[in-house]
Specification:
The protein is mostly helical and 83 residues long. The protein has three helices and no strands. 66% of the residues lie in helices and 0% in strands. The radius of gyration is 25 Å and the shape is rod-shaped. It starts with 10 loop residues before the first helix and ends in a 7-residue tail after the last helix.
Length: 83
């Protein structure tokens, strides 16, 4: 579904938008959509970076050997004690 959104631009901003659109061979509306997508990707990238920084700040020790990690996880989740 497409929705309509109105933005009011001063003359200079509209001229720059039209220039960008012309140089890309697309409409001004397409330029705006592309800029929104780019800005959204930047927001997502910033969220991922913050999440990674928080994980790093936890200083969790991660065993370098995948088999050791598997043994630790199996031991931690062994509820019956016979596995």
């Amino acid at each position: 579904m497409v929705t309509r959104f109105e933005v009011r631009l001063d003359k200079g901003c509209r001229e720059r938008l039209d220039e960008i659109a012309e140089s890309k061979g697309v409409t001004a509306a397409e330029v705006v959509r592309q800029l929104i997508d780019q800005a959204y990707e930047e927001v997502l990238r910033a969220h991922r970076l913050r999440a990674a920084e928080e994980l790093i700040a936890m200083n969790a020790e991660i065993p370098p050997d995948p088999d050791e990690l598997s043994r630790i996880l199996e031991t931690a989740h062994d509820v019956c004690g016979i596995c």
